[in-house]
Design brief:
The protein contains nine helices and twelve strands. With about 350 residues, the chain is of the alpha/beta class. The strands form two sheets. Strands 1, 2, 3, 4, 5, 6, 7, 8, 9 and 12 form a ten-stranded mixed β-sheet that branches. It has a two-stranded antiparallel ribbon with strand order 10-11. Strand 10 and strand 11 form a beta hairpin. This is PLC-like phosphodiesterase.
């Protein structure tokens, strides 16, 4: 009798454990409705120059929060720029030039991403690489392996157009997708040539200009997925260089109403919604809500972290697009915003 009771208790505990595990697996990137969708059918909130959050007074700052905070807030794709490091076994993350903004070694960021993947078993992450220094693919391989990420790396079979579902990627453990704009090498198959699979809209958008829906890279070529580059800058000539200065004070509007309008316009142009919605200062505006609308899932009410001293005055992060509906208001006009740009620039003039 006692042995039967012990067996019964053990069976109950095992059943409860399986139920909890099954429940956890029903969420993929935070939403049950994404599990059955293939990787290329999903939209991902993306940070442009995700590493460019420090130092806080840098001229070329694109984000206010560090990458662990971005991950915790729901960002699932990251744009990174690779430069040569003084350490032959590492890569440096810099913006335009390491003299302008040096965000430190890649090894640190990959360690942070690995910790997140270890602790969050149902999340799929994407990294886009701008190989600014023409580094060899083997250099990326070295740093990724040292960070312990090898088992997470997803490789799409050459010539295959069918992608796995998020649930399948989670089940296999291959939850880290990597694209590189140049320098792909078949000897490192997980570091995939971005433009075999993805096209991008133009990324140089000046303050006050309309957001374009044209194919910028690769020139004129449609692909299975696309990046919607949605961020603005103002050109500043300094030290013999033209620097694209991000505009944090406009981010609530840019990432709110303007974002919805841009998505609707490009959906109409391409008959395809974007997969990677890339923004600056993601915590301002309504990026997460808007991406949930693209994915046709009810927003989980995730509130992004508001930095204490971001220097931004954007309506506590709420843009005018709060009530906007993706794929509905295709005829909306963009609105120019008056920004005290030189005040922003002066605040960032620290090299």
């Amino acid at each position: 009798m006692r042995s039967s009771l012990v067996l019964s208790v053990a069976t109950t505990l095992l059943s409860a454990s399986l139920v909890q595990q099954t429940h956890a697996q029903q969420l993929c990137n935070g939403y049950a409705g994404l599990c059955a969708k293939t990787y290329d059918q999903v939209a991902y909130p993306t940070t442009h120059n995700a590493y460019a959050y420090q130092p806080a007074d840098a001229l070329a700052l694109n984000q206010h929060n560090d990458i662990p905070t971005q991950l915790g807030d729901g960002i699932r794709a990251f744009m990174l720029d690779a430069y040569k490091s003084t350490n032959p076994n590492d890569i440096q993350l810099c913006h335009t030039s390491c003299n302008l903004l040096d965000a430190g070694p890649l090894s640190k960021v990959l360690s942070q991403i690995k910790s997140f993947l270890d602790d969050n078993k149902n999340e799929v992450i994407t990294i886009f690489w701008e190989n600014s220094a023409d580094l060899a693919a083997s250099q990326f391989q070295t740093v990724y392996a040292a960070a312990g990420l090898s088992d997470y790396l997803y490789t799409q079979s050459a010539g295959t157009t069918k992608w796995p579902t998020l649930a399948e990627m989670i089940s296999s453990g291959k939850r880290l997708v990597n694209f590189i704009a140049s320098g792909a090498d078949a000897s490192v198959p997980w570091l995939m040539n971005e433009y075999d699979y993805v096209f991008e809209t133009p990324y140089q958008i000046t303050k006050g200009a309309e957001f374009p829906c044209t194919i910028d890279r690769p020139s004129g070529e449609r692909k299975q997925m696309y990046v919607l580059n949605h961020f603005i800058s103002q050109t500043l000539a300094t030290g013999g260089q033209n620097i694209d200065v991000p505009q944090p004070d406009a981010a609530a509007q840019t990432n709110g109403e303007d974002l919805v309008t841009h998505i609707n316009s490009c959906q109409s142009t391409f008959s395809q919604v974007p997969n990677f919605v890339a923004v600056d200062f993601y915590e301002k505006g309504t990026l997460l809500q808007t991406v949930a609308q693209i994915n046709d899932v009810p927003f989980n009410n995730k509130t992004p972290t508001q930095p204490k001293n971001s220097g931004s005055s954007g309506n506590n992060g709420k843009g005018k697009g709060n009530g906007g509906e993706v794929l509905m208001s295709k005829g909306a006009d963009l609105k120019a915003i008056g920004v005290a740009a030189m005040a922003v620039v002066c605040g960032y003039m620290a090299f």
